[in-house]
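Protocol step 4 of 6: structure prediction from sequence.
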Amino acid sequence: MGTETQDTADGFGRTYTDWLDWLGVNSLQVLGIGASLLVLAAVPFWAGPYTYSLALACIWAIFAMGWDILSGYTRYISFGHTLLSGVAAYTTALLVTYVDPELSIAISLPLSVAAALLAGYLFAFPSLRLSGPYFSLITLVGVLIATRAIFIFSGHTGGELGLNIGAITYDSTEIYYYTFVPMVLIAAGLVAVSRSNIGGVFRAIGQNETAVETAGLDTTKFKLWAFTYSAIPMGIGGALIAHFYGTVDPGTVLEVGLNIEIIAMAVIGGMGTVLGPVGGAFLFVLLRDEILLGPLGSHVRYIVLWAIMLVIFMKFPDGLFKKVWDLLGRFGGGDS
């Protein structure tokens, strides 16, 4: 029995080690992720009035991860990702307003994600053959065109006032888990992608695209995959935020400034890390909507907020949470 028990223990040890190697983490980093998950899963039990903002942070974390799997890994910097989330949010709002006010989210969500993918591909196919400022400019143009279209078709979209579909729930605990669970599932999915061979190609494109092409790989095809993996969470986040606010208008789901906030969350967390943008999103939203709003008001808070962001950018150019992650890797003796 003793020998069998030892064999089982050895087998578990090898399996556990294999998992750590595949994920590129050590036990201390796993412990950090587990503790963070427990704290976040228990938010409604300890956060009190902050629960609503933390629920919103989950959606922004989805946006930041969606942006990061494309721009953080391939270094194709997009300024137009709110086109994807905005199309998804408006699709949800239009379906609820004009098709069925009681439409299940099980139906509206996949349709909204499909609409985001379709709208995104219209810009992805021409733009992914470009690079640098040309790619970024085309993504930005996509947002500007979509914003104008909202006003042109204001008879259907509600124009500046938007469409009011009502929040899915006003219970802070329910709304939190409504956003937390998708965030965790998307994070797990994107981590799996980032650790796969496809994720390795994304990373290689970001480091030296010419070398990847020389190796015989079609980089445009892989960039399109990166865009698809990016668009899906953006679409899910767009549908979620429509139900979260209960109102869909250009200022809350589409305008260019929201893109800058998404990029800032990913950068302060750590580009090309998937989980770093999650930490960046929570820090950004808490500063913006809770810590700075009360004492500074709705306008001055942004001056202080962006000043804090600039300090983080300069002190931690690879990302604040990437720094923490690397420290855990160093003290835990891992290979990350």
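Step 5 (inspection) to follow. Residues 66 and 207 are 20 Å apart (CA to CA).
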